[in-house]
Amino acid sequence: MTQLRYLDGYPATIITQVETLFKQGKLGLWLEKKYPDGHAIQSDKSLYQFVGELKQRYLKNASALSKVQFDNKQNPIKGTLGTNTFISRVQGGKLKANNEIRIATLFRDGPEDFLRMIVVHELAHLKEKDHNKAFYQLCCHMEPDYHQLEFDMRVWLNWRDQRQQ
Fold it and tell me: pLDDT tens-digit profile of 126-142?
């Protein structure tokens, strides 16, 4: 049986379907057919622009982002694909606040849909800190296929891990 570490918590019937595609060697073909296009977002600057456009479209009144970058320290095995950090510092007599979004570097090579899903997730944390109903409603507002993309991205991560072994 194939270990599908990123699909914990999903129904057994779904996991069985993914395992069957793995065993038949068809999972990669299915993913490539469903997500044939990569993206040109390869630098931190282009990622900042990509995130900024989504933020401007959906979260105009949310606090500004001081930094957006790809980060090698984000690792799906450790459970982090992206992070949203709010840092407050005292500078002189003023309190300065910075919002930073860091996205796992592995998404440079993935489909744009998965990158967008991770970005939407991190942007939603600007309004909702917890993973609650309002958080997921906001994610679905920004990306209507959010839940399907999250599942497919988890399948892709498993497939990617299997290829590298």
Answer: 999 999 999 999 999 99
Which of 58, 55, 72, 73 lies closest to 108 in space, CA to CA?
Answer: 72
Specify which residues 9 forms β-bridges with. Answer: none
Work out the number of other CB atoms within 10 angstroms of the CB of residue 93.
5
Using DSSP bridges, classify how beta strands 67-71 and 94-104 pair: parallel, antiparallel or unpaired: parallel
Geometric angle at alpha carbon 152, from 149 and 155, rounded to 5° = 150
Q: Residues in the chain, how many?
A: 165
pLDDT in tens, 74-115: 877 667 788 777 777 777 777 777 789 999 999 999 999 999
**Residue bearing tokens 């796992």:** 104
Distance CA 160, CA 151 (A): 14
Please give the Cα distance from 7 to 4 (Å, whole number): 6
Scanning the structure block, which residue is given the tokens 């507002």? 141
- The count of other CB atoms within 10 Å of the CB of residue 165 is 4
Report the greatest alpha carbon distance in the chain: 64
Taking residue 148's Cβ as centre, other Cβ atoms within 10 Å add up to 13
Token digits of residue 109: 């090579």
